[in-house]
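Make up an example, fold above all:
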Amino acid sequence: LYKGEQLRLAAFFLRQDDSTLRGQGTLQTNRDYFVDASLQVDLHFEGFAPITASVQGQGPLNALHLTADLLSPQPMHLEGELLDILGTTTWSAKLQVPGLNPATLHPDWPDQSFRQMAIQGTGSLEEYALTVTADTGLPGVTAPVALQAELYGNGQGLQCPQLHLSHETTALRAQGAWQWLPHLAWQAEIQGTNLDPALFFPGWPGRFSGKLITQGQWRDTLEGTLQLTDLQGSLRQIPLAGHGEMQFQGKQVKIPAMVLKSGGSTLSLQGSATDRVEFLLSLHSGNVGELWPGASGLLDIQGRLHGTAQRPAFTLQLDAGRLR
């Protein structure tokens, strides 16, 4: 209904299968084009929990304030603003989620809880910037894990200059980038401090740190590198150290060196694989108990994997004493 300087939509209704949209609103056709509209959403998709939400928009068309509330399956609240819709459009928004578990949306999604999640963002129609904070729950871990992240993206890729997970003294920091245009490429650096496997494996307490670096791309073939550096600390109160590198390009895989030391025990691996395979494995342990709880004895292993990719051969030399 149009009257004077007001265009009024008394009601509209859309339905597809069990999903419905209901709305109403007004538009002032004067200089500011003031909008006052609301939308009720009830969505049903196969395999997903029913989704109900309400959306409201109010304000001048070029400075429109939006609020949205997800009512089920879990509550969320969004507030945002759209600026200069008829020109160079920009937006800002804040999403607040008291609690979220993806498994409540779809049974095949991770059973992972997030508490007090907040996402703030700004951007345009071409790019965006997001900051994320949340307390996450992990199976078997009573204290929450704090999550902080910064994300920047556009139609060509995504950058993460900061991702931080912390639980008491344990911390995991990461930064990286993912590009999908004009071709697939990535780079990432992950730094762990005071890592303790006992959070998930009670029989393997430890305190160690390390850095994982990877980069690569996929043009005609997939190529990249994976490096483990600065691994040091302790595992089951036994000194732990290590480093390693893997390179891959197309069908070629190369491991220049990979070394893991636990107390006086050393495991090493090096070699390459293309049309032919050549890998050397070495394990020396004066006390197998440094490698596995409850074990004891001496163990020396020399292994070689060689031959063609279609017909590889493996030779093994093993010397042991007082094993149990």
Remarks:
- The longest strand covers residues 141-154.
- The mean pLDDT is 92.
- The radius of gyration is 28 Å.
